[in-house]
Design brief:
Order of helices and strands: EEEHEHEHHEHE
Strand content: 15-25%
Structural class: alpha/beta
Radius of gyration: 16 Å
Shape: globular
Distance between the termini: 27 Å
Number of strands: 7
Helix content: 25-40%
Length: 139
């Protein structure tokens, strides 16, 4: 419980699930805005779980024009600044060609497009996060 100017409020913890792709959906932008607003109000984002087409948010090879918003960089900055865990659903990621260095080595691939800021996880990580958090918010 926190105290601000005579008022008490209970800080909440959130798990965010993002299912919309980086540059074909407004979902990632809404999720980022929600996360920043929640953090600014003293709440905590425990984990962002990227599911379905949401795994495209983890592509380190995207190159938006210099005057466009860089969704990948925004997720990376959020994670670094606020210790937010970024988890890609491994099944959805591999199905869509979103490969981490570790997975590339395991599969014998010479390239990868997901750097260490994101890690692969299963639905179990989503469920364990839900058990720890006060709320799940889906985008």
């Amino acid at each position: 419980m926190a105290h601000i100017q005579g008022h008490f409020f209970i800080m909440s913890t959130f798990i965010l699930q993002v299912s919309g792709k980086a540059y074909g959906s407004a979902a990632p932008l809404h999720a980022l805005r929600f996360a920043k607003a929640a953090i600014d109000e003293g709440h905590q984002i425990l984990r962002v779980f990227f599911y379905q087409d949401g795994v495209f948010n983890a592509s380190s090879l995207g190159s938006p024009a210099s005057d466009e918003f860089n969704v990948y960089r925004a997720w990376h900055e959020l994670a670094c600044e606020h210790k937010v865990e970024l988890v890609n659903c491994v099944s959805a990621a591999l199905r869509r060609g979103m490969v981490s260095r570790e997975e590339a080595e395991t599969q014998g691939l010479s390239h990868w497009n997901v750097d260490d800021g994101f890690h692969n996880g299963g639905l179990g990580e989503l469920v364990s996060g839900i058990a720890k958090a006060d709320r799940l918010v889906c985008f």
